[in-house]
Amino acid sequence: MNYQKLICLNLIYTIWISLFAPLAAAQNRIQKTDRPDDPPEVKGLQFGVREKEPKGEENPKLVHAEAVKLSEREANAIFRRLSPMPTAEFNKSDFQIRADSPPPPKTGK
Q1: Contact 30, 41 (CB under 8 A)
Q2: Contacts of 96 (CB under 8 A, 6+ apart)
Q3: Residues 77, 70 contacting (CB under 8 angstroms)
Q4: Where is 62: in which H helix or E strand?
Q5: Would you give per-residue pLDDT tens digits along the chain (109 residues)?
Q6: Quick check: 13 and 5 in contact, CB under 8 A?
Q7: Distance (Å, rounded) from C-alpha 24 to C-alpha 75?
Q8: What single DSSP character describes residue 59?
Q9: pTM exceeds cut of 0.70
Q10: What's the number of CA atoms in the CB half-sphere (13 Å) around residue 13?
Q11: How far apart are CA 85 and CA 79, in angstroms?
């Protein structure tokens, strides 16, 4: 079966199923017969958005640790423990044009 027939069948199926969607939504509602003025209840999980009620106490302020500057000797001791960064051959020049780059455009007069 080619893709056009598959897409057409999928479209027809989707339209056919959508005809029954109002009936399925109506089945989720429970009609109350004792109070006709009440809105119908909906089955399932429901979500709502509302304002948060303020609490009496505020959040405690965070205490930041005090920064201490390392001495030159301590900083060098840390750097000595690190492995040296690898350098590649292509990193030795400030700027390098790739081999497959087109030539720069010519300026107009």
Answers
A1: yes
A2: 90
A3: no
A4: none
A5: 688 888 899 989 888 888 777 766 666 665 555 555 666 677 778 788 888 777 766 767 888 889 999 999 999 999 999 998 877 666 666 676 778 888 888 887 6
A6: no
A7: 70
A8: P
A9: no
A10: 6
A11: 11
Residue 27 tokens read as 């089945």
* DSSP alpha helix (H) spans, 1-109: 3-18, 21-27, 72-81
> What type of residue sits at position 5?
K
Q: What angle is formed at CA 66 by the lines to CA 61 and CA 69, rounded to 5 degrees?
A: 155
Which tokens is 99 given?
A: 């081999």
32 and 38 in contact (C-beta within 8 Å)? yes
Q: What is the DSSP letter of 73?
A: H
Sign for the pseudo-dihedral over CA of 77, 80, 83, 85: positive
What one-letter code names the amino acid at 74? E
DSSP state, residue 79? H
> For residue 41, what is the DSSP state?
E
Residue type for 50, please? R
Residue 5 tokens read as: 């027939």
Can you read off the two tokens belonging to residue 87?
């350098």
